[in-house]
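Input chain follows. Return structure tokens only.
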Amino acid sequence: MWRKYWLWGLALLLSCNTTSPAPPIPEEKLLPMVRDWYAFRASLQAQNRPPPVTDSLMQLYTAQLLRQNHISPAEWDSLKSYFVQYPNAWKNLLEQALQSPPSP
């Protein structure tokens, strides 16, 4: 009987692991992209464009960033899935992007 509870306790401890695996795209490659993406988004917001226009321009800019950084649509989708699964990793990436200076 005690083995059953011991196994449940072990399973609970293992499921509480707060570390996340590395993202499918290295953070060194993501940080400049995130900075560029948010800078472009801020510039669009400052121009007071209608939301449909802003959304279209953001989609085009995202596609351009992906092409420039040689990221396939499959890698992009897996990255989005990764950050949905590990929201703290996204939060940490954004904090790093805000704290570290942009590269020249």
